[in-house]
């Protein structure tokens, strides 16, 4: 059975912020490469929900690295993968 994807507003906002930054400061090619890599990671999470590293702060929350400085936090809940946050690892306080 295919898992449903639920995307939080926080995740959407952060992904859009990274995309806009890459588009303005680098190039359209770099921004689209970011989106492609994001899609690949989400597909990997769907296929292997337990692949992520468990959170030390929250139960049932896992994370995978998107780029050296971006991490995807998600929750495998019933028949859905809930994308919680795209987090910039250069910030000091982890959200989950």
Describe the structure.
39% of the residues lie in helices and 31% in strands. With 96 residues, the chain is of the alpha+beta class. The protein has a single domain (4-88), classed as YaeB-like fold, CATH 3.30.2310.20. It has a five-stranded mixed β-sheet with strand order 1-5-4-3-2. The longest helix is centred in the middle third of the chain and has 20 residues, at 28-47. The protein is globular, with a radius of gyration of 13 Å.
Concise structural overview:
The protein has 96 residues and is an alpha+beta fold. The chain has helices at residues 9-25, 28-47; strands spanning 4-7, 53-54, 61-67, 70-77, 80-88.
Could you give the topology of this structure?
Elements: E1 4-7, H1 9-25, H2 28-47, E2 53-54, E3 61-67, E4 70-77, E5 80-88
Parallel strand pairs: 1-5
Antiparallel strand pairs: 2-3, 3-4, 4-5
Helix pairs in contact: 1-2
Gyration radius over CA: 13 Å
Overall average pLDDT: 91
Assigned CATH superfamily: RelE-like
Strand content: 25-35%
Number of helices: 2
Order of helices and strands: EHHEEEE
Q: What form results from the Cα inertia axes?
A: globular
> In CATH's first tier, which class applies?
Alpha Beta
Unreliable stretches: none
The tally of beta strands, per DSSP, is: 5
What does the main sheet amount to?
5 strands, mixed
| N-C termini distance | 28 Å
């Amino acid at each position: 059975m295919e898992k449903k994807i639920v995307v939080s507003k926080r995740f959407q906002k952060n992904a859009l912020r990274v995309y806009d930054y890459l588009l303005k400061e680098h190039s359209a090619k770099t921004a689209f490469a970011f989106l492609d890599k994001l899609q690949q990671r989400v597909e990997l999470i769907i296929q292997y929900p337990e692949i992520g590293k468990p959170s030390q702060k929250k139960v049932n929350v896992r994370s995978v690295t998107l780029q050296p400085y971006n991490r995807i936090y998600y929750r495998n809940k019933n028949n859905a993968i809930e994308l919680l946050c795209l987090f910039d690892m250069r910030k000091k306080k982890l959200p989950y």
